[in-house]
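G.,

No rush on this.
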Amino acid sequence: MDDVLDERALNRALLARQHLLMRSTDGPERVASDVVGLQAQNPWSPFVGLWSRVEGFTTGALDDLLLARRVVRIAVMRSTVHLVTADDAAVLADLVRPVLHRELRANPQRRAACDVVDLPQLAARAAAYVTEEPRTTVQLGAHLAATWPQVDPKDLAAFARALLPLVQVPPRGLWRGSAAPTLTTLDAWTPAAVAGAGNPTDLDVRRRAEDDLLLRYLRAYGPATVADAQAWSGLRGLAAVADRVRDRLVEVPVAPSAGYGRTRTLLDLPDAPRPGGDHPAPVRYLADYDDVWLAHARRERVIDDRHRRALQTPNGRTPAAVLVDGRVRATWAVERTGGGRSGGRRLATLVVTPLETLTATERRAVEDEGQRFVRFVADDADDHATTLLPR
């Protein structure tokens, strides 16, 4: 029988699967597949996520993948924009469509608008418009408002986003690129990937996709519960999926102190890494909204509850964080001076704010990794500095 996993062992299992204990040498496309996508609500976020996960990662490597349409930016898990491989997008976009549909009715204003809009007609008009050529969300909303002038164009564009798999195309999402979100359909952007995904209305195809998604979630974020997988994906009904794949899973015992209440076993894959709580975890800089601390119903695996509550904002914003000994124990931001109209050399300073007292050894590790990180994340600056605030 496996050893009982405590909170620290669960932490190390997660970090190992996320390539945060040891950077991967497989490259950004493979790693994006391994973790089933990286949060990309802010265009720079996946670059940071991949820098901390991929040995020798460069911004140009991800730019090339985006321009080659091998990875895309699309709303999938939890209806938030993720960077995923084109093949994954073709499957995930169909699986999560019910999640986006629910959001149409969740907002009271948009729920009322739904009653005056023919949604199938809207989807057809939107698809034809953005397939003709990629359009900004403003253009899309204005186009649809010609048919439904009584509805806010922003709501009409949001309906299209919920009803269609819409990709945000470059230059949006490129490193140092600057552009408004510009959309086209996934099948227009990556037709081969969509064709390879099979017919999403075929029940067997969908069930296989659901089964694969749960197994991949566990490989990337497990051991975990069905509730964890649902929190990560936004999907419902995954208990039935777990039942279908039960013969491919194992149950691993979890300690009462691990944050799962009365739950005594978690689901996992037999060969997934579980390195143990004593395995060293290096300092890692995370992007805002990184799925490593959003992928479970309970987040104690990587962050203390008191820190999570302190960092909460009314709009749900998640700060850019620093993992120290595997846990969120600091936040980071980059401050810039010089350049612009004032002229002079451009200085980028990485400011790290501890959430608790760090040992001298931990502070040195944060600063050492920070010196490398600031040169990456602020590669347009002339000079770089790192400031670790006291605690």
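When you get to it, here's the other one too:
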Amino acid sequence: MIGLIVVSAFVSCYIGLMRDPQPHRIPVAVTGARLAGQVQEALGDSVDVHRAASASAAHDALLHRDVVAVLRTGPHAEGLALDTAGANGLSTTAAVTRLVTGYAHGAGRHLTVADTVPLDRYDARGLAGFYLSFGVTLSGFALAQSVVGLANLLHLRHRFTLMAAFAAASGLVAAAIAGPLLGAVPAPYLPLAFVLALLAAAAAFTTKMLATYFGPLGIPVATLLLLTVGNSTSGATIGTDLLPRGARTLSELMPPGAAVRAIGDISYFQGSHVLAPLATLVLWAAGSAILLALRTSGQTTPAPTRPQPAPVPHASDEDRSGPVMHASGDDRSVPDPHPYDEGRFAPAPYPYDEDRPAPVPHPYSYSNSNSYGEDRTVPDRGTAGTAGTAGTAGTAGTAGTAVTVWSGGDAGRFTADPAPARHHA
């Protein structure tokens, strides 16, 4: 279900916003009060006419991004001249050119168009700022996902340090590739890197904060907020002046839209309006970090559990997890001697006083491999003779036998002793 919501929102935002863009109050500077009134009346709410006192004042407004175009009287009295700023984006420039061309055609006046602030030659479509913003946002989002998995291994300050360091590195690397290496973004290197670092920090801390507050739903929410809504309303593919009212508001408030405007300002318009986008990025990064710290400050990271050794099998090859029953009936839990010492002999087969086999009752040798490697010969004492009654001699006792014993259990074998010792009563 979450996947369907994400894909539906992605397709709806990107394709829906490009489906039928309509100009809404595009700022245009017009020289001359009479001409300004005629243009406003003819074009209505499609343009926002700024009356300029002179051509130079209108040109300054265009260079500082106060307006997107300047309409003035041409060299000939009946002609019109339109100066545009292609750096505002192809969609916006094309829209304002189409509107003014329609007005000039209706008024029967010739129109000449000139691009005063063109795009860089390696960014002919004006999409470098969008892809740069999208890539940095995606990197911060991916970093936050990794940090979520390290929550039980890293302290809060270490996670903050990791995200801040990555944001700085991401800004430096992305600015170097887009600027000096590829030449697609003509912004100064360090200001561009600073803007991109703020964007990466805003994406990383926002994603981590949402994952902390909303749990498993935090990552899909961040996907919808940053990668879908934020990038689609950034104003790079479709100019903000062509977006619906709600999308224009989101473009001003979301980090990707703020980054796209900041990149354009420092690249083509001398950073005239860069402070507002920078403030937006700082608020997102700092605000998310504060909320994240408030949420996790009272939580302690549990220490990693020391792995416990596996239980040692009993000497008689039994797997005993409970206490060992002593032969006398006692419940004795005695650990095996030397469970991990290498080089020691194996313990005796009966280390817990279990019932041993009965003694050998006849003159044979009981042999087995002793657990300690000893070969012991123990003499059999024989049986005692019976006492004689009055006037009757007692019976003689049986002779003792030399018995060779190897203690080792029931697997012994019997061998006859070749020379049993004899005793007389």
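Residues 281 and 293 are 18 Å apart (CA to CA). DSSP finds eleven helices and eleven strands in the chain.

Enjoy the weekend,
O.
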